[in-house]
Amino acid sequence: MILTLFKKTLKQNWKLLMIFFAVLIMYMSIMISMYDPEDMASILAMLELFPRELLSAMGFSNTITDFTSYLAGWLYGLLMSGFPLVYCIILGNRLVAKMVDDKSFGFLLSTPNSRVKIVITQGLYSLFSIFVLFAVLFGSGVAMASAIYPGLLDVGAFLKLNLITMLLNMFVMMICFFFSCLFNESKQALGLASAITVVSLLMNMLGNTSPDLNVLKKLSYYGLYDPVEIAMGAEIWQFIILFSLLAVVLFVFGVLIFNKKRLPI
Questions:
Q1: What is the pTM of this model?
Q2: Which residue pairs, CB below 8 angstroms and at least 24 apart, start in 49-56?
Q3: Domains of the chain by residue range
């Protein structure tokens, strides 16, 4: 890893990270403030005002037994998948393909550093940014929950929930990073990365709306992720291994492909 390049990439992209963190922390604070431990019936009754198919597609769950499962079903469904997905698409394209497309990558190659070290540094920054995003979200969530509803949040379950959500989004980031390494034109990398990730998310949403469409959920990697089950104590080791392995494989293949291809610079 090239520390100087890592710091430069951080300086160039920290505002993007802060924008998405601000949006997610806003939604988190709203969801926490909406919770009423004394009147769960009113929360469930509010769900009945909306079509069941819409709620299922959005990831909202009425399987609420405590504060932690409430956050899992209402916050860690679509919100913690959709918003980080947009971040992954934007950042993944910025780190490699956009720099090749606008010829700025040529300045990096004029340094004594190899293209392998350069692209590894860019990939490590993308993973680091996802780690920072969810680490701060976890800390903020625990702090807000402790201040408003002390003792109600199962911190261990909430940690597992954030860990799996983080690994899922690291895998998504590596999909975007892989296509950023594969293509020299930003629009091609952005288009294919967006298509695959967004379609997978939509397939999961549609699969949740009806048992007849459940096959779509099974074909989507988002279908493997059930935040409510994780919050309620489901085993997570298989997901840790799967998402970590997939992310590493895409990282390695992205670097290898980028090292061998011809660059128009």
A1: 0.90
A2: 53/209, 53/210, 56/208, 56/209
A3: 3-260
